[in-house]
Amino acid sequence: MLVKVLHNGNCSKSNAVLEYLDENGVPFEIINMIEDPLSVLELKTVLKKLNENVSHIIRKEEKLFLEKYAGKDLSEDEWLQILSENPSLIQRPILIKGSVAMLGRPVENVKFFIEQ
């Protein structure tokens, strides 16, 4: 089954997962979150597949988060809008296979995901 990878080309962990999939002959499709940001609806779909809430995918160590959003009490919908407009704040990579998804870190966890 094709694995979709929500990817940021500037992220070493994201690049490592692509390399792992390629080396292991796993068919995948790259979705560049920076060049083609996800809509709020797409983010909701990803969260449902992850079985997580929005706080699970926010990069809380990112400079933009620390400068602009740290300590703010925002709703799920407000965060979804922020992430749609600022895709660099989304954890990556996120792997999607059918109706399930996972954060692709550490790369060792990817092996179990693709074998299911």
Written account of the structure:
The chain is an alpha+beta fold and about 120 residues long. It has one domain (about 5-115): 3-Layer(aba) Sandwich (Glutaredoxin). Helix content is about 40%, strand content about 15%. The protein has five helices and four strands; from the N terminus they run βαβαααββα. It has a four-stranded mixed beta sheet, with helices on both faces. Helix 1 links the parallel strand 1 (about 5) and strand 2 (about 30). The radius of gyration is 14 Å and the shape is globular. The chain starts with a strand and ends with a helix. The model has no long low-confidence stretch (mean pLDDT about 95). It holds the Pfam family ArsC. InterPro entries: Arsenate_reductase-like, Thioredoxin-like_sf. Belongs to the ArsC family.
> What is the CATH architecture assignment?
3-Layer(aba) Sandwich
Overall domain count: 1
Q: How many beta-strand segments?
A: 4
Give the spatial strand order of the biggest sheet: 2-1-3-4
Chain-averaged pLDDT: 95
Our estimate of the beta-strand percent is 15-25%
Q: In CATH's first tier, which class applies? A: Alpha Beta
Round the Cα radius of gyration to an integer and report it: 14 Å
Largest sheet: 4 strands, mixed
Unreliable segments of 5+ consecutive residues:
none
Order of helices and strands: EHEHHHEEH
Share in helix: 40-55%
Q: What's the end-to-end separation, in Å?
A: 10 Å
- Predict the CATH topology: Glutaredoxin
CATH superfamily: Glutaredoxin
Shape: globular
Number of helices: 5
Structural class: alpha+beta
Family: Belongs to the ArsC family.
Organism: Chryseobacterium aquaeductus
Protein name: Regulatory protein Spx
